[in-house]
Amino acid sequence: MPDIHSYSNPQESRVRHVELDLAVSFAEKKLRGAATLFLEPAGKTLVLDTRDLNIQRVNGATTGFTLGPRDKFLGSPLTIELAPGTRSVMVEYETSPEASGLQWLEPPQTAGKRHPLLFSQSQAIHARSWIPIQDSPGVRVTYSARIHAPVPLTALMSAHIVRPGHFHLPQPVPPYLIALAVGDLQFQAISKRCGIWADPTVVKDAAREFEDVEKMVQAAEGLYGPYRWGRYDLLVLPPSFPFGGMENPCLTFATPTVIAGDRSLVSLVAHELAHSWSGNLVTNATWRDFWLNEGFTTYIERRIQEAIYGRRRSEMEFAIEQGELEKEMKELPPGDQKLAIDLTGRDPDDGMTQVPYVKGALLLRKLEEKYGRAKFDAWLRSYFDKFAFQSITSEQFVEHLHATFTEENVDGWLHQPGLPPDAPRVTYDFETAPRRTWATQEWLHWMRELPANISAAQMGSLDREWDFTHTGNSEIAAQWLLMAIRANYEPAWPRLEQFLITVGRRKFVKPLFDEMVKTPEGKARAQAIYKKARPGYHPITQATVDGILK
Ligand code: BES
Ligand code: ZN
User: Fold this and answer.
1) Same-domain status, 544 and 462
2) How far apart are the first and last CA of the chain?
3) For residue 490, what is the DSSP state?
4) DSSP label of 70
5) Ligand 1 touching residue 148 (CB < 6 A)
């Protein structure tokens, strides 16, 4: 199936292995060096994806290269005519300071405040902004890299560390899983194969929060077969990281906003770990089938949580997600409520709604309930074994489903909006446990149930009792600040500004700006805050908020 989000031509010439040699310049906000691409097959022409790359030279080409016009979403195709017999090309290039897949942080934006930090975020189609590559999830590559980072900073990648600055990933992965981070990073081991990388001032708290990670790997292995990537480490980034987590192989990237102190938000780790099977081992061939990555992963996340923390907690998490899906679906156009979604003319990041995640997970949950856990688990394991290290389509999923469950019909799930009549309902009764013992989700549930027209005076009395305005829990802070905007609760304004200047996680930032722009005074406040906050945001978050304020 052709990938509408890539200009590349893997049918004619396919990149199989990438060798990177890159120097990191914080002063110029640039990566500079070369990517050598090994091809099989190698035809007459090689087309690569690029975005805002400054291409200096291509070795191995006959007639040089041409860079096509820049498309807003797709970037510019780099076309290289290959001399007969050519098996590899070396592209010398540098990135732009505005590369959409890189964020360059100044020392004050880090926890330690003494050193700068760089990290990449390649999913969905941002790898092309820092590597000239066939940037399609259907093109799997192995890679090795040499990263020249300034002393005393540490470079990390989504790969095995051969020795400091030298990396190798022998398993073929789609380009969106190539990742790099450079900063003042310290390591703390959790088990033989798991550990935490983070700013030296954060690493202890992070290691305590994520102490169960080895247990999680073992639980997942028990269900779906061996963990195939060697190490499983986590890199805790500064709060400007635009997502909750990113499943970069060997090294999940995570937001520090899940460090709540009580491990109540560690399902994020279960989620990113689950991608080691659903996503990294078996990948959507194009972004139309993103649900194969995220729906399977959300389902497995629940299974890992159940194995470690029990059925009650995993059902609570599932019920909350189902509520969020139903709420979001009311506002989504019908086309975006299908699992196999049409992204023609759009940025694939637009497909990141609750639909692929939760509707996808509900489909697997339905199959589990219908055929029984034993049979369904065996089928899921066979799915991973059959498609390991491949990129597949929804049609291939259906075909493999029919091999075992011959009568099953999932067309409605894939191609119709809304939830089909056979969708399971996950329910959970929030107990009236004493509030002092509540975990994050219980607080959030209680806050969301408060009347929508709560007054500023009532907010004030809640604040005197619980001091929500100054909570260190980002989930609770974000919910409270949303309510503060609605109730025009002025004592929260300094905290609102401070929160939006430090935290760049899109899930928190977007609803707060959406809510502020609903009134003229709010819009003025939003603009004033954004002026200060924007320089610290990741390009992805900047694009989102630019859209709200334009
Ligand atoms: N792979 C996604 C993040 C992603 C998706 C980045 C699409 C870019 C484009 C990651 O696994 C994810 O789903 N993260 C979630 C957290 C998760 C617990 C639902 C997030 O960041 O919100
Ligand atoms: Zn995910």
Assistant:
1) yes
2) 36
3) G
4) P
5) no
Distance, in Å, from the CA atom of 360 to the CA atom of 369, rounded to the nearest integer, reads: 15
Considering the domain boundaries, does residue 131 fall inside one? no
Neighbouring residues of 207: CB distance < 8 A, sequence distance ≥ 6 = 188, 190, 195, 196
294-305: pLDDT as tens digits:
999 999 999 999
Judge if 448 and 484 occupy the same domain.
yes
Residue 357 annotated in active site = yes
Phi, psi (rounded to 5 degrees) for 71: -90, 140
> Using CA positions, which residue lies closest to atom 16 of ligand 1?
244
Active-site pick, 7, 176, 232, 357 = 357
Q: Collect all residues with Cβ–Cβ distance below 8 Å to 305 and sequence separation of at least 6.
A: 267, 270, 313, 314, 317
pLDDT tens per residue, range 311-328: 999 999 999 999 999 999
pTM flag (> 0.85):
yes
- How many domains does the chain contain in total? 2
Report yes or no: 209 and 223 within 8 Å, Cβ to Cβ. Answer: no
For 225-255, what is each residue's pLDDT tens digit?
999 999 999 999 999 999 999 999 999 999 9
pLDDT surpassing 90 at residue 436: no
Phi, psi (rounded to 5 degrees) for 375: -70, -40
Per residue in 266-303, is it b (16+ CB within 10 Å) or e — as a string? bbbbbbbbbbbbbbbbbbbbbbbbbbbbbbbbbbbbbb
Does ligand 1 come within 6 angstroms of the Cβ of 510?
no
